[in-house]
Amino acid sequence: MNTLSYKGFYGTVNFSEKDECFFGKIEGIDGLVNFEGESVKELTEAFHEAVDDYVAYCTAEGIAPHKSYSGQLNIRIKPETHSRIATLAKQAGESINAFISQTLDRRVAAMLMMAGMIVCAAGVQAQEYGFEYKDFPYKRTLCELPTYTAGTQITLGAPDITQDGKKLTGWRFEGQMYPLGGAFTMPEKDVVIESIWDNATGITNVQGDKTPCTKVIENGQLYLIYQGTKYNVQGAEVE
Q1: I want to staple 169 with a disulfide (CB 3.0 to 4.6 A). Which of 49, 176, 198, 237 is the partner?
Q2: pTM
Q3: Do the beta carbons of residue 148 and residue 129 sit within 8 Å?
Q4: pLDDT in tens, 102-118
């Protein structure tokens, strides 16, 4: 179906042979607003006018112009697709719901950008940057790397992975460290996240022995927890 877009609204386009005119309605609103025209130019102008009038009405009445949705959506997919999603979500350390939600967010953003509906304050289409994890099996098995606009909040993966006797404990980007499942704000550049690994069976702690201690990342800094006491990486006790 053909559509028109204007100021974040879109309308359907149909043709009536009987009346010899184009007609449509604004979609995604809690009401019925129609428009029509005898040519594509007239239809487009009528659509713009209908949107402007509708927005003005909503502003005057103090109501939200776009239709409200609950955020809950039941979908039917092929069993094999469901299985693949479950596997990928497990690898990513995410729930199936979170995995699907983030995948849909990227798909919607890409389509809106192609339609020119995502713009920055200067009126230029917002640029997207690549995001990937480096040098270990935790990579999304997708045909292409995910992309995000600057400022997007990303929840980093939290997979339970051990390889070569070491366990994944965190992430690093440009010297800043992040915990598994931590929040990451997309910068205005492509991002390659490095992984932080720890010995799975025990690490040399600040006392010089092999008694296992715990590594934690707080505010981008790495600390060791040994017998309830926190130390920095230089071995100094931290309160």
Answers
A1: 198
A2: 0.40
A3: yes
A4: 888 777 766 665 555 44
Q: What is the pLDDT of residue 121?
A: 40
In residues, how long is the chain?
A: 239
Q: Which residues contact 32 (CB under 8 A, 6 or more apart)?
A: 25
For 225, list phi and psi in degrees, rounded to 5.
-110, 115
Residue 64 neighbours by CB distance under 10 Å: 9
User: What are the b/e assignments for 110-148, b being 16+ CB within 10 Å?
Assistant: eebbeeebbeeeeeeebebbebebeeeebebeeeeebbb
Could you tell me which residues are beta bridge partners of residue 163? 166
- 210 inside domain: no
Same domain, 90 and 146: yes
Q: 83 with 164, same domain?
A: yes
CATH number at residue 179: 2.60.40.4270
**Burial of 24 (C-beta count, 10 Å sphere; 0-12/13-18/19+):** buried
pLDDT at 90: 83
pLDDT greater than 50 at residue 202: no
